[in-house]
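User: Here's a structure from my thesis project, written as structure tokens. My advisor, Dr. K., wants to see whether a designed sequence matches the one we expressed. Can you design one independently, without my sequence as a hint?
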């Protein structure tokens, strides 16, 4: 029997997950559990790259992140889920890789420049922020992952990892495979203000939110900006609410919404209410599973501990190889 291809990905514990996280990564992770040998980690050391001034919430966010993962369908029976900082080998490999990584590789990273602009309220002039792609490379090649599921904007990170692995293998002998980026399809899910859904923009709907809060937020969504009155025909193709209908409503409802919008037979307020009802129904199984784990937090802590033990065994074996080829 051919062994499953191994993949690895992670998320920083910076707060509750939202619909953008679900459709941008988590839904694909859940599907991938059936096809791949999956390693998913909570990247709490990575959280320090931008949130180093206040670390008080990171520990709590780790458990919240695991709750969100479990609630959407990730399961320890099919995936190894662990916490980065519990595997000290990550720090050791990060140190070794930093010795061989040219600084210009890091400075040309497009995300490095983008984040400095987007997070202008934070001082990111640190070695850790510049060098986080090296830690990311250590995270990935530690488990000899052959693939990394990412969106198109994350492909440069995987390419840096490939370059670092290639350089290590050239200098010391082949130890690491060069992982491929696995591009994952993601539906269009924007925040209520039509910007990318983000905690920092305060425009997100979170997986753990109550139906009441979801409906309140849905009422704020921007629709067709050219439709000023209910009697004006609308254009669903430019409407954020219609994009949500295409994800959360059944085909008959989507067709009905499209027709009544274009022919001014339904107003935007009512359309938002219908969308909110569909979204609430979609998220109810996720909330229900989350409630179960919230009532059994000992089980959540057990999953974290067991997954981290399994990951550590793999990491220890990898680092034994690394030390051997380095002759240290």
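Assistant: Designed independently from the structure alone:
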């Amino acid at each position: 029997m051919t062994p499953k291809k191994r993949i690895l990905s992670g998320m920083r514990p910076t707060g509750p997950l939202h619909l953008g996280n679900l459709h941008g990564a988590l839904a694909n992770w859940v599907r991938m559990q059936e096809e791949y040998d999956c390693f998913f980690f909570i990247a709490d050391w990575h959280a320090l790259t931008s949130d180093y001034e206040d670390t008080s919430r990171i520990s709590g966010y780790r458990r919240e992140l695991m709750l969100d993962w479990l609630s959407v369908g990730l399961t320890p029976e099919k995936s190894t889920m662990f916490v980065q900082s519990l595997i000290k080998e990550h720090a050791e490999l990060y140190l070794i890789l930093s010795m061989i990584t040219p600084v210009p590789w890091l400075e040309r990273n497009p995300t490095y420049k983008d984040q400095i602009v987007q997070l202008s309220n934070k001082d990111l002039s640190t070695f850790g922020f510049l060098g986080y792609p090296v830690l990311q490379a250590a995270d990935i090649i530690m488990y000899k992952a052959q693939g990394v599921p990412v969106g198109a904007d994350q492909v440069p990170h995987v390419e840096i990892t490939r370059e670092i692995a290639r350089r290590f293998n050239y200098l010391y002998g082949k130890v690491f495979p060069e992982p491929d980026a696995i591009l994952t399809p993601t539906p269009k899910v924007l925040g209520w203000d039509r910007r990318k859904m983000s905690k920092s923009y305060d425009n997100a709907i979170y997986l753990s939110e109550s139906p009441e809060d979801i409906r309140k937020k849905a009422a704020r969504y921007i629709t067709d900006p050219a439709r000023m009155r209910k009697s004006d025909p609308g254009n669903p193709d430019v409407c954020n609410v219609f994009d949500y209908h295409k994800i959360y409503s059944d085909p008959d409802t989507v067709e009905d919404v499209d027709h009544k919008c274009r022919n001014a037979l339904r107003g935007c307020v009512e359309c938002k209410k219908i969308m909110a009802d569909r979204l609430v129904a979609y998220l109810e199984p996720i909330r229900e599973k989350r409630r179960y784990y919230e009532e059994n937090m000992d089980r959540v802590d057990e999953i974290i501990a067991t997954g981290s033990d399994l990951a550590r065994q793999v990491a220890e074996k990898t680092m034994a190889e690394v030390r051997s080829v380095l002759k240290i």
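When you compare it with your expressed construct, this may help: The first strand starts at residue 6 and ends at 11.
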